[in-house]
């Protein structure tokens, strides 16, 4: 039996920024994802989280010149370049690099981009929730990831759905649009009850989920809600249901018992 050769990983090295330059072998040419400016701000906040892949530049005799090209990590380099040009980082600052000498530079660039697994949206929802649990405000989370506070509110709302439903979403048994619909009512047992009922239902459309979850609630635009008054309803301990993902016309009054019946609307309001 042939003994299997052990793998040797590429060497890592801290290289001064001014010894690095972009390679023409980088396969990424179309702009996508976070902007260079946002990436620079993120690096300034958290430093560089991923090493840059480089290859030594050789002279005509095959000897290293001390310079290195970057076939994979060009966006990180441009972000560092922006920090240097704005004098927020020294041009001789050491950059963590992985030094490659085998194979093709184009292969390095393609492999780094193709083999990178995208983050599942649920992981982002839960990460935002974990930060909120650790005391970060919605505004602080928004600033850290270059999104609006309303986006953070939406992500936190999604993370707060019943665990069994989040598992269904992770297993692709539920769509994101369906998951968003479930956020309209925070009652986990009711969410799970509706999801179970949908397994036997001919329609699983998000609007049907919202209808089932707000069944028995009173729309804020309803005459009964206007008769009671939202402020008085809140003072009486009434809970509001809100939809953060589409227009909800002010939401729903969940505690219908605090609202008058249609027959009572003709009676004088008691104070």
Tell me what you see in this structure.
A hairpin with a 5-residue loop joins strand 3 and strand 4 (64-72). The chain is elongated. Among the domains are: 11-114, Conserved hypothetical protein from pyrococcus furiosus pfu- 392566-001, ParB domain; 118-160. The chain has helices at 36-46, 74-85, 105-114, 121-133, 138-145, 149-159, 163-170, 176-182, 188-198, 206-213, 223-228, 230-235; strands at 11-16, 20-22, 52-58, 64-72, 94-99, 218-219, 240-241, 252-253. Helix 4 packs across helix 6 (149-159). Strands 1-5-3-4-2 form a five-stranded mixed beta sheet. A three-stranded antiparallel beta sheet has the order 6-8-7. It is built from twelve helices and eight strands. The N and C termini lie far apart (92 Å). 41% of the residues lie in helices and 14% in strands. With 271 residues, the protein is of the alpha/beta class.
Q: Largest beta sheet, briefly?
A: 5 strands, mixed
Order of helices and strands: EEHEEHEHHHHHHHHEHHEE
The CATH architecture name of the domain at 11-114 reads: Alpha-Beta Complex
Number of strands: 8
Count of helical stretches? 12
CATH T-level fold name of the domain at 11-114: Conserved hypothetical protein from pyrococcus furiosus pfu- 392566-001, ParB domain
Work out the helicity level. 40-55%
